[in-house]
């Protein structure tokens, strides 16, 4: 196999990583594995996805777009992190979703209990990611399908958004409730359409569980997430 030119990338103030130009663009199995391991092993990401009752916040196509952004940002494996996942997730919602409110659920998960104090810093971080993407946020369906095929044995590819959440005419929340970010330990508000269509399946390991408030040690969570230093760009 021929040698490919290398490029030095600074990932923080102290460390440089040398990668080949080939690594930046091809769909590498190691990248897919690292991405799926991040989803499975990061407590906050995995619980966010479990609490996404209707798969309306993060369905399989959103996953594919986030991974595409990881590749376009030319992240090294050390940059496959929670902060970059949620940053790219926010950008994906900016680009693809009609419902502006859904993306706000991200804030308490990545910024902790006092998330409203850190929103400006998160927006700056998001803009840094956008620049690293070279403002190229469009992802075609064919690319999504290719990525999902590479992940076909993982449960994320089964996250099919219900039809009543796939249109611009989004069902109203039950009892005209206003959307408010709920954060860890609480499932998103159950909408009347999901009750009607039976989307929600309640079981002892249900993602919509009235006892889930005790699932997290919220004091530990806030200790881990409130300092925004963990979310500042590492590049």
Automatic annotation (TrEMBL):
<protein>
    <submittedName>
        <fullName>Uncharacterized protein</fullName>
    </submittedName>
</protein>
<dbReference type="Pfam" id="PF11357">
    <property type="entry name" value="Spy1"/>
</dbReference>
<feature type="compositionally biased region" description="Polar residues">
    <location>
        <begin position="166"/>
        <end position="179"/>
    </location>
</feature>
<dbReference type="InterPro" id="IPR052316">
    <property type="entry name" value="Speedy-Ringo_regulator"/>
</dbReference>
<feature type="region of interest" description="Disordered">
    <location>
        <begin position="158"/>
        <end position="184"/>
    </location>
</feature>
<comment type="similarity">
    <text>Belongs to the Speedy/Ringo family.</text>
</comment>
<dbReference type="GO" id="GO:0019901">
    <property type="term" value="F:protein kinase binding"/>
</dbReference>
<dbReference type="InterPro" id="IPR020984">
    <property type="entry name" value="Speedy"/>
</dbReference>
<keyword id="KW-0131">Cell cycle</keyword>
